[in-house]
Design brief:
about 25% helix, about 40% strand, seven-stranded antiparallel beta sheet, alpha+beta, Alpha-D-Glucose-1,6-Bisphosphate, Chain A, domain 4, SRPBCC domain-containing protein, 3 helices, ASHA1/2-like_C, globular, START-like_dom_sf
């Protein structure tokens, strides 16, 4: 499976992009009501929690923080939440990286979802979903609103 890599140039500072990606008010808008719960300490748990198949506290994604440098890097392991893997006993691990760097008055956001395991059943849907999430991030930072995707 090939790595999923996307690069977006966003009309906002790294701090503004970081806030959209990390803060509860940002993630709720970008990720359909989900927030990140984590201490952001290396090795600690990171979860995306929000409305879903298991109610308002559905764990959509979880993993462990691998790297956290505010306004620059967030890297963590990625597992699908239990409501997505009920029929599949095997857990598939991959890795997510958000890399931010200033470019003039903009921010270059490089997103990489890599280290996929062979046979991961979520790969195809994940590829499609990231385009929407990252486009939503760009729109939120630049306009203060998100895309109407429903």
């Amino acid at each position: 499976m090939k790595d999923l890599k996307y690069v977006f140039y966003i009309g906002g500072s790294p701090e503004e992009v970081w806030k959209a990606l990390i803060s509860p008010e940002g993630t709720k808008q970008i990720y359909c009501g989900s927030v990140i719960r984590s201490t952001f300490q290396v090795g600690d748990l990171l979860e995306y929690i929000g409305p879903g198949a298991d109610g308002d506290e559905t764990v959509h994604v979880y993993g462990n923080v691998l790297e956290h440098v505010p306004n620059q890097v967030l890297r963590f392991t990625h597992f699908a939440g239990k409501s997505y893997t009920k029929d599949d006993k095997q857990e598939f691990e991959s890795r997510i990286s958000y890399l931010l760097e200033p470019v003039g008055a903009c921010t270059k956001l490089t997103f990489i979802h890599d280290q996929w395991q062979k046979g991961d059943p979520l790969y195809e849907n994940t590829d499609a979903a990231w385009w929407m999430i990252l486009s939503n991030t760009k729109t939120l930072v630049e306009t203060g609103k998100t895309l109407d995707l429903e």
